[in-house]
Amino acid sequence: MAKKKGFIKYALRHGYRVHPAYSFGECDTYWVFPYFAKLRAALNAYKIPTVIFAGAWFCPLLPRYDIELHTVIGPALEMPLVPAGELTEAVVDAWHAKYVASLVKVFDDHKARFGKADLKLEVL
Questions:
Q1: Residues 77, 122: one domain?
Q2: Are residues 91 and 111 in the same domain?
Q3: By CB atoms within 10 Å of each CB, which of 2, 5, 18, 122 scores lowest?
Q4: Is there a contact between 107 and 54 (Cβ–Cβ < 8 Å)?
Q5: Residues 11, 40: one domain?
Q6: Residue range 36-65, pLDDT digits in tens
Q7: Is residue 8 domain-shared with residue 41, that is, in the same domain?
Q8: Would you state the pLDDT for residue 86?
Q9: Is the predicted pLDDT of residue 78 greater than 90, yes or no?
Q10: Helix axes 89-110, 6-14, angle to 10 degrees
Q11: What are the strands, taking DSSP E only, across 1-124?
């Protein structure tokens, strides 16, 4: 997400509010098979994306139905209305950093409640 800043740029251009939100349990909705990592790496070298996963037992394309999902939403970031001519990369970077910091805070504030107390949120 560190490279995905278009939503911040759009919000700044129109003066929108942005709410940081995190869904606990989402990464458990599919099983990913790590033993195919070498095959995936080899295919990625040729720019062929490969994902091997499975979800529900009766239809592997659907997510697992026995997983609880909990979405928490943080307080809104009020974006200023910045005219397109004044919207620089530095302004977008500064507001994106504020968004990431508030997202990490939302995660840290709620992670113990959902059994993830030992985890740290990595924003890539």
A1: yes
A2: yes
A3: 122
A4: no
A5: no
A6: 888 888 888 898 888 888 899 899 999 998
A7: no
A8: 87
A9: yes
A10: 110
A11: 17-18, 21-24, 31-32, 53-54, 70-73, 77-78
Residue that has been written with the tokens 């098979």 in this structure: 33
DSSP string over 64-78? PSS---EEEE-PPEE
Model confidence over 11-44: pLDDT tens digits? 999 999 999 999 999 988 998 888 888 888 888 8
Domain holding 90, by residue range, is 1-24+71-124
98 burial level (CB within 10 Å; 0-12, 13-18, 19+): middle
In a shared domain, residues 37 and 62: yes
**pLDDT bucket at 1, cuts 50 / 70 / 90:** low
Amino acid identity, residue 5? Answer: K
**Do residue 115 and residue 81 come from a single domain?**
yes
Identify whether residues 85 and 99 lie together within a single domain. Answer: yes
Give the whole-angstrom CA distance, residue 55 versus residue 36: 17
* pLDDT at residue 8 tops 70: yes
Percentage of residues in the chain having pLDDT higher than 90 = 58
| pTM for this prediction | 0.80
With tokens 């869904």, the residue in question is 23
